[in-house]
Amino acid sequence: MAGCAARVPPGSEARLSLATFLLGASVLALPLLTRAGLQGRTGLALYVAGLNALLLLLYRPPRYQIAIRACFLGFVFGCGVLLSFSQSSWNHFGWYVCSLSLFHYSEYLVTAVNNPKSLSLDSFLLNHSLEYTVAALSSWIEFTLENIFWPELKQIPWLSTTGLLMVVFGECLRKAAMFTAGSNFNHVVQSEKSDTHTLVTSGVYAWFRHPSYVGWFYWSIGTQVMLCNPICGVVYALTVWRFFRDRTEEEEISLIHFFGEEYLEYKKRVPTGLPFIKGVKVEL
Question: Which residue ranges traverse the bilayer (predicted)?
Answer without folding.
Answer: 16-34, 40-59, 66-85, 216-238
